[in-house]
Automatic annotation (TrEMBL):
Required for the export of heme to the periplasm for the biogenesis of c-type cytochromes. Belongs to the CcmD/CycX/HelD family. It is found in: Cell inner membrane. It holds the Pfam family CcmD. This is Heme exporter protein D. Its main location: membrane. InterPro entries: Haem_export_protD_CcmD (IPR007078). Keywords: Cell inner membrane, Cell membrane, Cytochrome c-type biogenesis, Membrane, Transmembrane, Transmembrane helix, Transport. GO terms for cellular component: plasma membrane. It is a single-pass membrane protein. The chain crosses the membrane at residues 6-28. One of its GO terms (biological process) is cytochrome complex assembly. It comes from Mesorhizobium metallidurans STM 2683.
Length: 55
């Protein structure tokens, strides 16, 4: 394997690791935000855009 092929393989591997990390971070943060929203809704806090609570 040439030095160039090793460099390209390492670059693709690092890119895949970084992308996987970002996707994981997004999914973990999404769960946390959904949990926060559920806690707020359970406490009675509603969004201003939610018109169903008004008569």
């Amino acid at each position: 394997m040439s030095a160039h092929a090793l460099y390209v393989t390492a670059a693709y591997t690092m890119t895949a690791v970084v992308l996987a990390g970002l996707i994981g971070w997004i999914l973990i943060d999404q769960r946390a935000r959904k949990r926060d929203l559920a806690e707020l809704e359970a406490a009675g806090v509603r969004r201003r855009s939610d018109k169903s609570g008004k008569s």
